[in-house]
């Protein structure tokens, strides 16, 4: 019986973070407000490299992407944050292939941003894989907020 209880606790410890990582998303219809400020889009002016490769782990099991400069638009949100999809996607580190992805901004803590790979639009068949660690502050220096130019 004790082994069953420890097994259940172990399962919940592993399973619950995974379930939270894929919370139901809602489409973004209006400009998201984060910490009292409208964030219509993000503009990355310098590349960010995310290399989570580890010795002995297959490359396909780790996030290894080069986030190229470009525009990110809000496409969906969950209770913890907003998904901003990269208009031009990313490049993989191995093979330099094109892959979809974006940035996930926390609604709970200012300045906490994760990279994700995939398509965060509601109804997408691919879904998203979020990096396990948020970006360091040094990587955020090249990230700006922006607004679309008004039509004249």
Radius of gyration: 17 Å
Mean pLDDT: 80
How many helix segments? 1
Q: What is the string of helix and strand elements? A: HEEEEEEEEEEEEEE
Largest sheet: 8 strands, antiparallel
Ranges where pLDDT stays below 50 over 5 or more residues in a row are: 4-21
How widely separated are the two ends? 72 Å
Number of strands: 14
Oligomer: single chain
- Tell me the helix content: 10-25%
Query: Based on helices, strands and strand pairing, what is the structural class?
Result: mainly beta
Choose one word for the global shape: globular
> What percentage of amino acids are in beta strands?
35-45%
Features:
37% strand, 152 residues, 1 helix, eight-stranded antiparallel sheet, single chain, four-stranded antiparallel sheet, mainly beta
Topology:
Layout: H1 2-21, E1 26-27, E2 33-34, E3 37-38, E4 41-44, E5 48-51, E6 64-67, E7 70-77, E8 81-86, E9 90-92, E10 98-99, E11 101-106, E12 113-118, E13 128-130, E14 143-146
Antiparallel strand pairs: 1-7, 2-3, 4-7, 4-14, 5-6, 6-9, 7-8, 8-11, 9-10, 11-12, 12-13
Describe this structure in words.
By secondary structure, the chain is mainly β. Helices cover 13% and strands 37% of the residues. It has one helix at residues 2-21; strands spanning 26-27, 33-34, 37-38, 41-44, 48-51, 64-67, 70-77, 81-86, 90-92, 98-99, 101-106, 113-118, 128-130, 143-146. Strands 1, 4, 7, 8, 11, 12, 13 and 14 form an 8-stranded antiparallel sheet that branches. A 4-stranded antiparallel sheet has the order 5-6-9-10, with no helix packed on it. The longest helix has 20 residues, at 2-21. Mean pLDDT is 80; it is low at 4-21.
